[in-house]
Amino acid sequence: MSTVSELRPKRTGASGSGASHAAPRPHLDEVAPAVYDELRRLAAAYVRRERPGQTLQATALVHEAYLRLAGAGTPWTDRKHFLGIAARSMRQILVERARARGAQKRWADLDRVSLTESLVRASEEDAMLPALDEALARLERIDPEQARIIELRYFVGLGIEEAADALGISPATLKRRWAMARAWLFRELSHER
Amino acid sequence: MNAEQWVRVREVFERALDREGGDLEAWLDEQAGGDRDVRREVESLLRHHSGAGSFLSAPLTDRVPGLLDEETQFQPGQRIGDYDIVRELGRGGMGRVYLATDVRLSRTVALKALPPHLTRDPAQRERLRREARAAAALSHPGICTIYALEELNDELFIAAEYIDGRTLRQEITQGRRPSSRDLLDMARELAAALAAAHMKGITHRDLKPENVMRAPDGRLKILDFGLALIDPVAGPFAATHVTQPGVLVGTPAYMAPEQLNGSPVDARADVFAFGVLLYECACGTHPFQAASPLALAARVLESEPRPIQTVCPDISPLVASVIDRCLSKAPRDRFASAADVALALARTDVPRPPTGVTIWWRAHQLAAIALNLGAAAFAWRIKEWQHGLPDQLFLAVGILATVAAIFRGHLLFTEKMNRRAFDAERRRAVPVTLGADLLIALAVFADGALLASARPLPAVLTMALAVGIAVTRLVLEPATTSAAFGSAT
Lengths: 193, 489
What we know:
The complex is a heterodimer.
Chain A: H1 4-7, H2 17-22, H3 28-47, H4 55-71, H5 79-100, H6 103-109, H7 115-118, H8 129-142, H9 144-156, H10 160-167, H11 171-191
Helix pairs in contact in A: 3-4, 3-5, 4-5, 5-9, 8-9, 8-11, 9-10, 9-11, 10-11
Chain B: H1 3-18, H2 24-32, H3 36-51, H4 60-63, E1 79-80, E2 83-91, E3 96-102, E4 107-113, H5 122-136, E5 146-152, E6 155-161, E7 166-167, H6 168-173, H7 180-199, E8 202-203, E9 212-214, E10 220-222, E11 229-230, H8 257-260, H9 267-283, H10 293-302, H11 308-311, H12 317-326, H13 338-347, H14 355-385, H15 391-417, H16 419-451, H17 456-485
Antiparallel strand pairs in B: 1-2, 2-3, 3-4, 4-6, 5-6, 7-9, 8-11, 9-10
């Protein structure tokens, strides 16, 4: 289980990061409903493009994400911090789901002359998830913000503006960082094995 | 590459994205400022950037829409090993349950398998094996019997006793509230079954109304030892941690505070869940009822449960006190294990009276109040008839009648509104009402005797009333009281 300090967004040159620490910690009972709604909203955003019958799964996802939150000790300090933890939870859930589907074996069997070609079959993309997860962990050590951008864009499914808002950076900056994170991860996955 | 270089790489890379035309090589040389590492990294990243295509561009769920989908597994009519699948009984996050026929023994069984997306997960397979081992180690009528653990190719499943009943959750949602007597029986039955597990060093960790079935014969059976924790010291198994330490397992609404905090748990977490379950069965609501699961968990951690006597006053004081103790925040304040719960539930048998008898007791008390006050009114009447009778006699009857009536009214109120304190109050009130009633009888009798020469007929009636009051107090009241509450005092 990741510790909370790892999950906290580390913004390069952001002046606001200190303020969130100074803010008084809200009482758990007070924020609980808001937090739960936020997670559900996120989860809804996450599955909104899918078929209608999947609300149940969104709820299940929220429950699972919640369990992880509670397990982490949950001293979230503000909305952005919370979004970070929620995004991390969703990433873990999806990667585990892919792992349970035998992703690692499929990934190893994948003929990867060219990663892009191999991933043309979109439904097989989950085979990549465990490897992507590990690469993301490496990226996080070098540049936590870029790792978070991938989490918000790819795993949670937020748009450019939404993700920028969640991280407190401009959409233009987010776009550039996202491009670099994609390039970096693409290289990692192409050269791996 | 160090952190400073990384920042340089990022700056150059981002600038390169906005660059228009020109010689890239020369531009890179200029931008890198002689740092070969930075230059090589930027160049590599730019190359992969142009080759990445749509990599990670679309959200994962757009690319793999079925990733969270449920899949079907066993179809009705399908033969798996020696089992014919009849139909699916239920599904949850951790497993699917099917009704099947064991063709060798031609008996009906319940098959429990992992959900399809988990069948290849080694940790989940190990969890299912442990569930089978834990439940198989327990031979108790209150615990669902395991017949076999089957492993066929990729499929792994448990064959278990099929209980054609309903879960306690179904009973609760259907609004069935057990009588006080039935609740006590349920509590004892469940505590005994859970104690059998605890004595083998097995903690269930997921006790909830969904996991307790009532068989057609009325017996309760605990199911689903899927999250059971096996204590290596007390238990017969080697210690293996299937769940990672610190990872939360269970159902939040039934988790003890220490479980929610991710601290190590033992049998006392089951004791807490047992308390929540009984509370819910008794009252139909959760002791920490809240608007959302997270708020509920917060209440479990920080607030006291809603007192069970106010939510459902009909519950017997014994069960109420056991539930109260089970719901203690600190594990040390709870029972050490289900065996202790069973012991506490067996210690004092306070059978809750059938409501009909209580109504008779209430009627009796009301009649006695009327009789007391009637005697006082009658004494006043006699004083009017027969001048020269001592005033003290009337005063004595009036005062005693008032005292007795007040105490009886108090008992009626306590019985209805504060059932837990009732027995103590009753014991306190008995000498007062007994003394008052007998003194009233004596005074009224004296009234009658003094009236005898002047008005013989009213005198006889008065003395008869006195005898009636005494008999009522000495014979009838003990009878209704013991019928209603099990003891005359």
